[in-house]
Design brief:
Layout (H helix, E strand, L loop, with lengths): L1 E8 L3 H9 L4 H6 L2 E9 L15 E2 L11 E4 L6 H11 L4 E3 L2 H6 L1 H10 L2 E2 L10 H6 L5 E8 L2 H11 L4 H10 L8 H4 L2 H14 L6 H6 L9 H9 L2 E12 L2 E12 L3 H5 L4 E8 L2 E7 L4 H16 L23 E2 L1
Parallel strand pairs: 1-2, 1-4, 2-3, 4-5, 5-6
Antiparallel strand pairs: 7-8, 7-10, 8-9, 9-12, 10-11
The structure holds NADP nicotinamide-adenine-dinucleotide phosphate and L-homoserine.
The site of L-homoserine (HSE) has 11 residues, from α7.
Length: 338
Amino acid sequence: METVRVALMGGGTVGSAFAQLLPAHRSRFRALDVEVELTRVLVRDTQKSRPGIPARLLTNNPKGFLEDVDVLVEVAGGTTLAGDLVLQALEMGLPVVTANKALLAERWGELREYAEEGSLYYEASVMAGTPILGALQSLWGNQTLEVHGIVNGTCSYLIRRMEEGATYDQAFQEAEQLGYLEADPNLDVGGIDSAHKICVLGRLTVDPGLSWNKVLQRTRGIQHLTPELLQQARAEGHAIKLVASLYPEQGEWVAAVRPVRLPESHPLVSMGSGRNALVYRGDPVGQLVFAGAGAGGDVTASAVLGDLYRLLLGAPGHLPIPDSVPTPQQPLEQLEEV
Ligand code: NAP
Ligand code: HSE
């Protein structure tokens, strides 16, 4: 029986949910001849009690955090300390499982070589428990034509609740209770979190070198949306959604995030109310629709655990597409920006 020692960076919404899920998987791990041991957990405040995490495992000292471990699971967030520890682990030859799309989007120049080697597992970073990265990788046999997704759970939830008559403040507090928000919720409502995610998807699907700065330049959020605007659109048979897209423009792949007005019959409206949904269009496969929970501790932790299984089974992490995909002449669908 091999013991796999896990260093967990982050014991918040996702980290705590991950630690609580682990015990139920012990017998399945044993069937793979593996014991998974949570060795230590890095947090800021070691005095806070955290469901599922024994206090003796907590540390706030990043020095020595990676000593005598076999894998780093990073669910802390941010691009600085988390980025430095992830890179340190990768340089030491340790595989890394992460849910941190901000890090992946913004420090790709440093991470890319490790992702290409298969040492970086990041299913939880986009659409949380809805396994979109694995699905998109399985679609490499197609010519990708375009991708449109509702990939931020917070905005999706806020929009649904405001359509139902809640105020922005009410809806925001509910989203916070549900564990959907980023540590800085401006990332959610400003569209930046969606931009991080479409950037990750773009590198996996159409262009391994997709530039974060270019995605950021084409990003808008939902701060200007009011309950009245959303309800008016509904009364007219439409819905306003924050959509992240990959599409061709003047011979280049472009990634953009903005609120758009969609007919109620659109799959992103029928499948994505209050949650995440993504439409993939490719040749020859045609249109595929993926939908499910895109935020929350338990669902995200389930994807982190799924990555751990992949790792234990010897499967590589999430590889960027090896080369840029030819750009189609024009997009199939023009979305009306609001
Ligand atoms: P969270 O509840 O804010 O938890 C973050 C954890 O990281 C906390 O335990 C915090 O310690 C620790 N931490 C943060 N900065 C640290 C530092 N500099 N040094 C040591 N510890 C530090 O966040 P979360 O919702 O679990 O999200 C974690 C990651 O998962 C983020 O990258 C997020 O984007 C991603 N993600 C979240 C969701 C979701 O639905 N929540 C879904 C998909 C992906 P303290 O507790 O002591 O403050
Ligand atoms: N804050 C993110 C969201 C968490 O609302 O989608 C999941 O990535």
